Amino acid sequence: MALSGMRGLSVFISDVRNCQNKEQERLRVDKELGNVRTRFKNEKGLSPYEKKKYVWKMLYIYMLGYDVDFGHMEAVSLISAPKYPEKQVGYIVTACLLNENHDFLRLAINTVRNDIIGRNETFQCLALTLVGNIGGREFAESLAADVQKLLISSSCRPLVRKKAALCLLRLYRKNPDVVNVDGWADRMAQLLDERDLGVLTSSMSLLVALVSNNHEAYWSCLPKCVKTLERLARNQDIPQEYTYYGIPSPWLQVKTMRALQYFPTVEDPNTRRSLFEVLQRILMGTDVVKNVNKNNASHAVLFEALALVMHLDAEKEMMSQCVALLGKFIAVREPNIRYLGLENMTRMLMVTDVQDIIKRHQAQIITSLKDPDISIRRRALDLLYGMCDVSNAKDIVEELLQYLSSADFAMREELSLKAAILAEKFAPDLSWYVDVILQLIDKAGDFVSDDIWFRVVQFVTNNEDLQSYAAAKAREYLNKPAIHETMVKVSAYILGEYGHLLARRPGYSPKELFTIIHEKHPTVSTSTIPILLSSYAKILMHTQPPEPELQNQIWTIFNKYESCIDVEIQQRAAEYFALSRKGASLMDILAEMPKFPERQSALIRKAEDAEVDTAEQSAIKLRAQQQMSTALVVTDQRPPNGMPAQPSIGPLSLVKVPSETVDSQNPGDQGLTHPNGVVYKEDPQPPSQDIIGDLLGTLSIEGPPGAVAQSPQSATYEAEGAPSAADAAALVPVGEESGSVQPIGNINERFYALCLKDSGVLYEDPNIQIGIKAEWRAHQGRLVLFLGNKNTASLGSVQALILPPTHLKMELSLVPETIPPRAQVQCPLEVMNLRPSRDVAVLDFSYKFGPTMVNVKLRLPAVLNKFLQPITVSPEEFFPQWRSLSGPPLKLQEVVCI
Amino acid sequence: IVHKLIKLQIHFVLLISRQGKVRLTKWYSPYSQKERSKVIRELSGIVLNRGPKLCNFVEWRGHRVVYRRYAGLYFCMCIDEADNELEVLDIIHHFVEILDRYFGSVCELDLIFNFHKAYYILDEVLIAGEFQESSKRTIIRLLSTHDSMVEMAKEEATSIGNMIAQVTK
């Protein structure tokens, strides 16, 4: 173990490492900061060594994420120290502590300039590195010319010049208007003849930046790039130390090919021929080998070559070769290659004439949609999206829908959006389109934006032969116990408008339609109520002759909402109520909606806008497809990785009962928070026992180690949910023949525990264990019962009945009659809460083991608190509502002294 | 966080331990301290939870993060979508090989206690987020020259100190 060579620094780092928790660490860091601050105040007494030590400590603290708001001056002042050790520390710490926007940096410009134009090449290197890493506009203004001079100076050694090239690159990228590159084409061409490969590599990076801005000026560099590539890839003419796993500097090869992609084309036939020869050699001469590092390097070169081939619009034959190669890649074991294979196939779609060859790989791509790696699944999704057309839309969209139910939370939004767009763009017939969108809402309602369901309504309204079909579908979905609010909206709308077309079918009488829609009423938020009211008004209008009972029911509802706090609802209720008493005129006013004018889909428009923005340079043209597809996801500012948006600790947090109508939150906002609460964990993996092993173990250059520990969730889950063989053996009493089977553990305690958590054991006896796992979202819940047979014989006559109280709607999936030995069956149970109540649902469970019949009644932990959700209300939202309420019982206030 | 970035090869380098501790950070695009913490938090959440046999790339906020695990330490570099992922993976490994040669079988503790050295080694591999030198030998030679300059200065300081001490005796 090597120590830092500075005792004080090592001691401090050890102290921080030994802190047991974040709080201790903060205390230790604060103490150190106090100490450093005091020492800096009495600066006179500081030796260079001490000064160095303190700024390192500051950097360490800053690196750990703490704010360090002093001492910048000390760090910057070390830059002007005369000796190398202090100067080096000054440069490195300044480059980490400050960024281009810091004013302090200005103080250093003069010193830095002196070092750059001075004779000491070590100092030149330090200064160039600093400017390269954090130099801003002012540095560009005062230093660019000096840096340019160094780069082309014949008296400078390569170690200075390569740094000058990258330093110039940064200054130019940040401020192309400040750095004067007139006449640099010749200089660059000269630099490409450079024998030192360090200088050549840096110069090539600089060339990429210059060419990407203005390729016209640098035509003379093009043949040189091809020469360089030939030299590396064909002749392997390169010193041994510049090969990496036997491959001539893959970095230089990649950069050279990158630079070539910024030229629109290669006109000179000889150069073009040489270039294609090299590319052909790279494409065909690269094999997947055992050594992972060699693979990475050779394929880095290969994929860049592919990109260049695509850019150059090679002959069809070479393109098909490329697609064949990619087809091979997407099926290999090596995950990196699979990933890049899919990604490059997506880019390939931009090239004409190859779509049909790519389609041949559709089955393999669909398999990748189920890859264990989310990165690969994302690429597969993008590719499927890109390759979809009328010929394969049905297959692809249906795959996407199927995948939606099992897809990661993080991908659902993107998936649903893409499925919706494809369904609309390529629908072979309209009823299929309606099916797709309704399935989409059903499976991923939270991710279906209003745009999507508006669009389906437009289609149905404009196509008469679709109307009764859509109404029947909507009616089907309403039968389900728990449906997404968006589904309530779209079904209510369609049934109100077109339900009467099916009036003769059983189950479609106005009364029945009203009942099934109104059943959802207690669960919806304010944004849906107006749609329901319109739907009721329409049903009423279509009921000819009027049915007094239905009329009264609906009028009661209108009456109730006439005093609603929401203006929209109030107005509709009042108007519909008045209109519905006018008889015939109601018919005119509530007549069927006219057709919508044809318009472009908002979704597709969004997608196309994004495409225009990104299509800029020729080299980027190839990437446009891919950027377009990700741009779609950006329509909403939700983080794409499944993290919860913000913990909701607002100034006022209210507890929201779902059936209340104060909900102004967009239902989509609930999307990414995990159904039952916390997703983010401070420390993703508990510290393992072999920390020391990690610290002392070498970083194993040969390759990453194998398995990591199983994730904690799945471990606990198994412990709780599934009985292990050992448990069962220990617990089954020998010779138990008849008599009652006694539960293991206290049933009541188990129930109370489950009221507060979402997974655990509900019931256990010597024969069976019933585990439960639940997810809650607003007024809905999904429980899974895990029925585990602990015996070596089957359990028979298994029956599970749910006895729900009136406020809960529950649906238990089929429970098998027998549970095989040592097996566990899962039975999902859907729950929907219709109104608040303290009643509890009961599971009546029975089974037969041998001659013994066991029957237990278990309370299910679907209790009120599971349906509560915190919401955040800002003072601006809260107080107007609060003030608009008039005294008790709506408004009660009490001041409590603590 | 990343919207304002200009084209750069590598936006930042992160070394995070398996327990989520930060071992080294280097930012080539300007991020505030608050943004940095957020980036580290988000990325450790994503990267540390990935299984062993997956690819070395994750997609994050419209960018790609290339990472690789060595024993208990994760090396991560953030690049643009259009950049060459494998090339950056090669940079990571190249950096690790140089650390290994410099420290002699490098381990996490070497980097913890010598984070300052890790910084100047990184400065020889990357400038402005761009790759600088593919010859490990050239870099190692340079590093040892610098180290001996520091040593010489130290000796000089001691001998001058001794001389002064003798004169003022």
Automatic annotation (TrEMBL), chain A:
GO terms for molecular function: clathrin adaptor activity. The keyword Membrane applies. It is a peripheral membrane protein. It comes from the Eukaryota. Signal peptide: none annotated. It is found in: Membrane, Coated pit. A 1,2-diacyl-sn-glycero-3-phospho-(1D-myo-inositol-3,4,5-trisphosphate) binds at R7, G8, Y49, K53, Y54, V55, W56, K57. Pfam families: Adaptin_N, Alpha_adaptinC2. Residues 752-861 form the Clathrin adaptor alpha/beta/gamma-adaptin appendage Ig-like subdomain domain. SMART domains: Alpha_adaptinC2. Subunit of the adaptor protein complex 2 (AP-2). Adaptor protein complexes function in protein transport via transport vesicles in different membrane traffic pathways. Adaptor protein complexes are vesicle coat components and appear to be involved in cargo selection and vesicle formation. AP-2 is involved in clathrin-dependent endocytosis in which cargo proteins are incorporated into vesicles surrounded by clathrin (clathrin-coated vesicles, CCVs) which are destined for fusion with the early endosome. The complex binds polyphosphoinositides. GO terms for cellular component: AP-2 adaptor complex. Adaptor protein complex 2 (AP-2) is a heterotetramer composed of two large adaptins (alpha-type and beta-type subunits), a medium adaptin (mu-type subunit) and a small adaptin (sigma-type subunit). Belongs to the adaptor complexes large subunit family. Keywords: Coated pit, Endocytosis, Membrane, Protein transport, Transport. One of its GO terms (biological process) is intracellular protein transport. This is AP-2 complex subunit alpha.
From TrEMBL, chain B:
GO terms for biological process: cytosolic transport; intracellular protein transport. InterPro entries: AP1_sigma, AP_complex_ssu, AP_mu_sigma_su, Clathrin_sm-chain_CS, Longin-like_dom_sf. It comes from the Eukaryota. SUPFAM superfamilies: SNARE-like. CDD domains: AP1_sigma (cd14831). One of its GO terms (molecular function) is clathrin adaptor activity. It comes from Linum tenue. Keywords: Cytoplasmic vesicle, Golgi apparatus, Membrane, Protein transport, Transport. This is AP complex subunit sigma. Residues 9-149 form the AP complex mu/sigma subunit domain.
